[in-house]
Amino acid sequence: MEKENIRIAIDCDDAAIEMKNTLIAHLQTEGMDVVDLQFNAEGEKDYPEIGHNLAIHIQKKKYDRGILLCGTGLGMAIIANKVESVYAGVCHDVFSAERLQKSNNAQVLTMGARVIGSELAKKIVDAWLNSHFNGGRSLSKVEKIRSLEQQSFHPEA
Ligand code: RB5
Fold this sequence. Notes:
This protein is α/β, with parallel strands linked by helices.
């Protein structure tokens, strides 16, 4: 899929509003289609609800990729991975961002605004969006995740 055609959702908690706004402006400058879910618009939500909301949108295939930001990126990754068929990883370096897509085929990138600055976050997002899962030697491993995930979500099946 061409980068410009990727449907991206983004959201954050109180710890990462500035980073979120910087990334939205950056992606729009690059001609990307990015939607700010703003699940915390009333200031009443914490990272679990915000991350869960975005992950459900990914699960329903309303968006192709999601970016979740909080203080560390950790809580957002934990909650997004609780949604079946959604895969999220924390990245604070460019190499990991490439591998998150190429090796892990993860639809959700999380970052922490208390860990890295917005300039590095832009480079990480670019690396992740410019990377694609091509299967190969990684395919069987990703399929194992899907298989084991079924045992966790549907233990009686
Ligand atoms: C603040 O709620 C902080 O815990 C949150 O932004 C995030 O870092 C959690 O993982």
